[in-house]
DNA sequence: CCATCATCCTGCCGGC
DNA sequence: TGCCGGCAGGATGATG
């Protein structure tokens, strides 16, 4: 499921192929995927527009078009956005295709949870889901102090706090479990119970896990592909996610599994306190 | 404020 | 072999 590292890899892999190209045609195969806030025909706003740049905020991908219009994409679980040089036939779960000068961008999503939205670029920050997002994990303004401040007063479990996009943007179930393992903290711990030393460990673990994920090309546990259709490699480096019942890579203990914050959660009963 | 649950959706897997 | 129930989960909104 695309979390920050995966969306960042989609952004980077697409950018090198589509920036500067003009949208010639747009086809929608499953209309529900498109959330049109303006009530205008997407075609009127997309055709003839050039791709200017690609951005990202948390797990949201932005495709900025000339003419001050931006496409917002969220991939949820199984969403994909792949660029094909030249022609490419739509596949079973292809919901939208952007036809460019030299190729096509195919949006597909087996589970149909992902959405595409079109907004005026100037209003991007006003979109509720975007406006609510917490700081970017690698923004210099996201300091250890800021992190501690955002955690303070929370009565939820620390896993729930990490999954909450208002705490920090971009963490999902995979990187939440990985960061908590790296920090040696049990997912079901109450946020308020964390010592300052643990908050610092967790801060470093969040950045460490996300950075490692980005550099490995993301986690292709099952469905994830980047904008070139390639898999990532981080699934080979996971400490806990998807490894319940297997041995901890650090201490050899059998990894435990719980349901925390409504999500499957894997942890090491020895390494995490 | 927080937790839990239903909703959306389809492929996969284990059990029988 | 084939059917079926359960599971996977990000964001949102309802409910307790």
TrEMBL record:
Which GO annotations describe the biological process of this protein? base-excision repair
Task: Show where the FPG-type domain sits.
Answer: 239-273
Free-text remark on how the cofactor is bound: Binds 1 zinc ion per subunit.
* A family per Pfam: Fapy_DNA_glyco
**UniProt catalytic activity:** 2'-deoxyribonucleotide-(2'-deoxyribose 5'-phosphate)-2'-deoxyribonucleotide-DNA = a 3'-end 2'-deoxyribonucleotide-(2,3-dehydro-2,3-deoxyribose 5'-phosphate)-DNA + a 5'-end 5'-phospho-2'-deoxyribonucleoside-DNA + H(+); Hydrolysis of DNA containing ring-opened 7-methylguanine residues, releasing 2,6-diamino-4-hydroxy-5-(N-methyl)formamidopyrimidine
Q: Which SMART domains match?
A: Fapy_DNA_glyco, H2TH
Keywords linked to the UniProt accession: DNA damage, DNA repair, DNA-binding, Glycosidase, Hydrolase, Lyase, Metal-binding, Multifunctional enzyme, Zinc, Zinc-finger
According to the UniProt entry, its GO molecular function terms are: 8-oxo-7,8-dihydroguanine DNA N-glycosylase activity; class I DNA-(apurinic or apyrimidinic site) endonuclease activity; damaged DNA binding; double-stranded DNA binding; zinc ion binding
Membrane-spanning intervals of the chain? none
Please state every residue range assigned to the domain named Formamidopyrimidine-DNA glycosylase catalytic.
2-114
EC number, as in UniProt:
3.2.2.23, 4.2.99.18
Q: What does this protein do?
A: Involved in base excision repair of DNA damaged by oxidation or by mutagenic agents. Acts as DNA glycosylase that recognizes and removes damaged bases. Has a preference for oxidized purines, such as 7,8-dihydro-8-oxoguanine (8-oxoG). Has AP (apurinic/apyrimidinic) lyase activity and introduces nicks in the DNA strand. Cleaves the DNA backbone by beta-delta elimination to generate a single-strand break at the site of the removed base with both 3'- and 5'-phosphates.
Q: Which NCBIfam families match?
A: fpg (TIGR00577), PRK01103.1 (NF002211)
Quaternary structure per UniProt? Monomer.
What family does the Swiss-Prot or TrEMBL record give for this protein? Belongs to the FPG family.
Q: What is this protein called?
A: Formamidopyrimidine-DNA glycosylase
* Name of encoding gene: mutM
